[in-house]
Amino acid sequence: MTNKSFRGEVWNNIDEQVLAEIARINDEDVDGKVGQDKYTAQATSYLQSFFDTEIAVLYTINGTAANIIALKALLNRFGSVICSEQAHINTYECGAVEYNLGNKILTIPTSDAKITPQMIDRLLFEHRSHQYRPQVIALTQPTELGTLYTLDELRALVVYGHSKGMKIFIDGARIGSALASLGCTLREMIADTGVDAFTVGGTKAGAMFGEAVVFLDKNVLREGDYILKQSLQHFDKSKFLGIQMLALFNDDRWVKNFAHANNMAKLLGGQLRQKGIMPYFPVQSNMVFCVVEEDILRQMQATYDLKYWFEDKKVVRMATTFSTTEEDVMRLVESIK
Fold first, then answer.
1. How crowded is the C-beta side of 212, counted as CA atoms within 13 Å?
2. pLDDT tens digit sequence for 306-319
3. Is the pLDDT of residue 262 over 70?
4. Structurally, how many domains does the chain consist of?
5. How far apart are CA 337 and CA 335, in angstroms?
6. Of 176, 211, 205, which is closest to residue 64 (Cα–Cα)?
C-alpha cells in the first residue's frame, strides 16, 4: 500500500503529547460534562488570553460541525453567506450548511480562493434584485488553495463587511499555519482586524479530534448549549476533547506544529522546483500545489498516494504536517526520475 502522508493531515496519527495527555487523564474522575470540565475551562482561558473583551467558546468534534455552529449563531433563518467558490463550506461539506441551516450560500469565483471587497461589491450588484440578505462573509485562513490573507486584507474585508451590516467569520481549520507563516498572534489576526468569529482547528494540528468555535462578542452566543445539542455535538466526556485542545495550546504547540509543517512545505516546493516541477500557487502555508505530468505522477504514486486536485490542469496537492520529516520530503522528490 502506498503511503498517504502527503494526502492531508487527516491521514496522520495523533501528536504524541496529545496522546500522552489523553492517557494520563483517563485515571481521573470525570469532573464535568459538555465543556464543564477543568481541561476545557483551561483551554478556553488560553483563548481568552488573546482578547480584552469576554469571548464565548464552543468545542466540537470536527471542522464541519464547527463551521455549522458558528454560522448558526451568526445567521438569521433568512440570511445568506458569502464565500469563495473554493470554500470548504461550499465544496467538501456535502451541503451541510444548506441541509442543517437552510441558509443560502452565495459564492464568488476566484483564481486563488481569496475574495476582496471589490468582488463582494460585484456580487451584491449582480444580485441586487434578488431576495437575498447577506449576513456573513465566510473566509478560510489559509484558503483551500494554501494562499493567505494578509492582516491588511483581513482588515479591509472587515471594514467593508461591517459597513454593509455583515459579520466576518474565519474557518480556521489550519489557522495555526497562517499564524506561523505571518508571524502574528491570534490577537493581531482576529481582534486587531475586527473579525467577529473564527474556529481553531485541533484535528489538523495533531489532535485525534477537536475544534474550538470562538465568538468575540459573547452576547452573540446566548444559547450555546442548545446549539451544541441540536447540532449533535453535545459531547458528554468533554474532558477528552478539552485535554486535546489544552495539550496543543500548552507552549503554543499547535502553532509550532504548523510552523514545522510550513517549513516542510517550503522544502518540498523548493526541491520540486529543482526537478522542474513548478508551483501552481505560491507556497504560503503547509500545502504545495504543483503541475505534474501524468508520467511523473505515476512515478510519485509508486511511493505516495497522490492524485490530481484539478485534473484538467494536472495540478496535484501535497500537504505537509507536524509529523512530516525531511526524509519524507526527499523520498518523494527522489521518486521522480
1. 30
2. 999 999 999 999 99
3. yes
4. 2
5. 6
6. 211
Rounded CA gap, 61 and 210, in Å?
5
* Three cell numbers written together for 90: 461550499
- Which structural domain range is residue 269 located in? 253-334
CATH, residue 199: 3.40.640.10
State whether 234 and 281 are in the same domain.
no
Q: Is residue 2 part of a domain?
A: no
Pick the more confident residue, 162 or 30. 162
CA-only gyration radius of the chain, Å: 20
Q: What does the mean pLDDT of the chain come to?
A: 95
CB 153 within 8 A of CB 112: no
Global confidence as pTM: 0.96
Sign, CA torsion 71/215/284/253? negative
> Residue for cell digits 465544496?
91
Co-location of 62 and 209 in the same domain: yes
Residue 126: its H or E element: helix 117-126
User: Could you give the CA distance from residue 322 to residue 5 in angstroms, rounded to a whole number?
Assistant: 11
Q: Looking at residues 62-69, what average pLDDT do you find?
A: 96
- Mean pLDDT, residues 59-82: 95
308-310, strands of its sheet edge to edge: 287-291, 315-319, 308-310
pLDDT confidence of residue 337:
86
Q: Are residues 75 and 128 in the same domain?
A: yes
Average pLDDT over residues 171-197: 98
- Per the listing, cell 475544534 goes with 211
**Model confidence pLDDT, tens digit, residues 200-209:** 999 999 999 9
Q: Could you tell me which residues come within 8 angstroms of residue 142 by beta carbon, excluding any fewer than 6 positions away?
A: 148, 174, 177, 178, 181, 284, 285, 286, 287
Grid cell listed for 55: 469571548
Phi, psi of 239 (to 5 degrees): -60, -30
In terms of residues, how long is the chain? 337
Residue 100 in this model has a pLDDT that exceeds 70:
yes
Contact yes or no for 82/138 (Cβ under 8 A) = yes
pLDDT reading at 1 higher than 70: no
Distance CA 177, CA 287 (A): 10
**243 and 261 co-located in one domain:** no
- Whether residue 248 is predicted with pLDDT greater than 70 in this model: the reply is yes
